[in-house]
Amino acid sequence: MSRTTTSMELWPADLVQQAADSLETAGKLLADHSIAVCAPTLPVSLGAARGRLGEALTDGRLAESDIEDACRVLVDIEHLQEQLAKAEAIRRIAELGDVHDAACRLRGLSPRRIIESAPEVVCTQLPFGRSMISAVSGSLWQPRRLYLNPDLDGSDLDFSDYVDSAVLSLAEAPLETELVRRRVPALVATPAADNRTHKEIVSRSRTSAYVAAPVMSAGKVIGLLHADRPGSADVLDPFDRDRLDSFATILAIVYEQAVLKHRIQLQRAQVEESFDATQTMLDRISKADALLSDRAPGPPERPTDVPGEGRVLEINSVLTVREREILSHLATGATNCQIAQSLVISEGTVKSHVKAVLKKLHAPTRAVAAALYSSQTRRAR
């Protein structure tokens, strides 16, 4: 929502009309018609009128016939101030909800994309025209990404070339240093005249006022967010500062979640690779054992009248350790996906093992292989 110093669109129309009537009456009682103007903001105008009217009553500067009207107007103004404060609180809570929703748009992105997209979200979802995100490392402050609303593209307010190559020292920017040390946001009303600002970046950006907030992760400031409204008559205020700070807080949470998810994915891939490599080695060892067993003299054959016993013995001699493990799961009716989850391997690896098991056992289906395994299990008992 755009905030301006003269717009009355922020307030309910009935409250605006009541305020205008009260201010007009106060102006007449004080013989000052300028007091009826609702500027710079409605609450400020009401507060000023209330103060001046109260002083006039206290000092006895009002006619006796006007005292009753003055008291009535003071009561009306006080009531209006309460209603406006309530409306302002409700509006700010709603806007903080918008800030939360804006930051949550970054969920699902990679850590790098979150950083690259944050300034754009600040400008497209919040009432800012330009935003910059920077990295903080030790005593260095490095701008990473600048975004301007499309209507500012190509103007002298676009200093992307500077941002892409700048590496600044926090020692030359006391204000940003304070953000990092104290971990609090800031509203800079006059950057050029403020001795704490980094003059080169102020000059390059041509900013007349800006807000800034730290981005924290694991209790440490890892970046800074800057935002302003260049070329706009809309004056930045403390709520703009708090708005950006709320966004930076949620941004940090989203970023930390993305980093954690990325690390888990890498670790999972490494574990799967380790399991696959181990399984390959075990398969080679099992094949070598099977080869040596085939060459070694065996006990004399004995007749058997148990159908399928030869196939049962064949299972242990031709299958590797992992293949026998896969077969044990097949016997329970488990799917490839379920086997993969149970053994912490990929589904593709399971498919390869199942194919090998069926081939070695000369089993046309999974059911036949499962039956052979069940027969072996019963005989072992």
State the name of the first-level CATH class of the largest domain.
Answer: Alpha Beta
Chain-averaged pLDDT:
83
Strand order of the largest sheet: 3-2-1-6-5-4
Percent range for β-strand residues = 5-15%
CATH topology of the largest domain: Beta-Lactamase
- Major sheet, described briefly? 6 strands, antiparallel
Please estimate the helix content. 55-70%
Pick out the low-confidence regions. Answer: 1-8, 302-312
Task: Please trace the helix and strand order, writing H or E for each element.
Answer: HHHHEEHEHEHEEHHHHHH
N-to-C terminal Cα separation, in Å? 76 Å
| Total beta-strand segments | 6
Q: Would you identify the CATH architecture of the largest domain?
A: 2-Layer Sandwich
Number of domains: 3
Can you count the helices? 13
Structural class: alpha+beta
Structure description:
- By secondary structure, the chain is of the alpha+beta class.
- The protein has three domains: 13-103, no CATH class; 106-262, GAF domain (Beta-Lactamase), CATH 3.30.450; 308-380, Orthogonal Bundle (Arc Repressor Mutant, subunit A).
- It is built from 13 helices and six strands.
- It has helices spanning 13-29, 42-59, 64-104, 111-125, 160-165, 174-182, 199-205, 238-295, 309-318, 321-330, 336-343, 347-360, 366-380; strands spanning 130-137, 140-148, 168-169, 186-188, 210-217, 220-228.
- It has a six-stranded antiparallel beta sheet, sandwiched between helices.
- Helix 3 runs parallel beside helix 8.
- The longest helix has 58 residues, at 238-295.
- The chain is elongated.
- The termini are far apart.
- Residues 1-8 and 302-312 have low confidence and may be disordered.
